[in-house]
Design goal:
Elements lengths: L23 H7 L3 E3 L17 E6 L4 E12 L6 E10 L2 E17 L14 E11 L7 E14 L2 E4 L10 E9 L5 E8 L10 E4 L3 E4 L9 H6 L5 E4 L10 E2 L3 H11 L3
Parallel strand pairs: 12-13
Antiparallel strand pairs: 1-5, 2-3, 2-10, 3-4, 4-5, 5-6, 6-7, 7-8, 7-9, 9-10, 11-12, 13-14
Amino acid sequence: MKILSLILILSVQPITSKQSIFKPSLLSQLENCYELAPPKYWEKDYHILWKNQRFEGVIGNDNQRIQMRVLSVEKDASQKGIYKIRGKSKVKNNICNFEGQLDIVQILLLDKGNIDCENPEMSEGILSGKYLLCEDSTQNHVGCFEGEFTTLFDEVNSKVKSFKGWYDVQGVNDFIGSWTSYGKQQNKYCSWGYLLPPNKGNILYKSYDNEVYAFNSLFLDKGWKSYVISHLNTLFVIPKNFKQLEYTDFIDYSREEIEKYRKLEAEF
């Protein structure tokens, strides 16, 4: 599993138009390889990129784990770029249902005619937009998730499919924003992504040996222990000293412990 080096950086400022979701610095990096998609791409159905996906995220400033599971996604037949979404969130032992919508505001396509862009590490397309997902007000510790997302995709026979690449810090299906409790009593940073959350400050994990991620053991008790151990040596390693530039000593677990945590992860 190769970890790619291209890093996408989203603006977390409010979206003001269909063309403004990326920071200018990112646009300058992509302008030679990506271009605005023609109108026919707005007619495509992208729901498969999110439906039945499990996302890993953080909420608050202490990297507390939040799990997001998308159960259903439906394209709105009357509004361009709108998708109705339903799922559930989990923080610690608190599970809440949520529903809301994704609003695609920009579609970029790889310029395949540009020889400088012939790189398997680049997706064929990039969706970007904003989201608003609200939890069931009758449940406990509930509020709304709001922010911006980026989803990378490929095409096969004119049909979209998930992009399978990897990135150091920013993923290929990321949601970055905040969670606000009903009544606005609490507002917390919140983000999630496929397999890994966006890595704010590079303190939760970092790439190791272009094969796996080194996970910071300081955050195992923030809900990450079962997830990290269940993917030990396939997605993660746990260095005893995360701050070292080179790792020589790792925390290890028995096969029985790994299997136990895998069973726990399958429960949500």
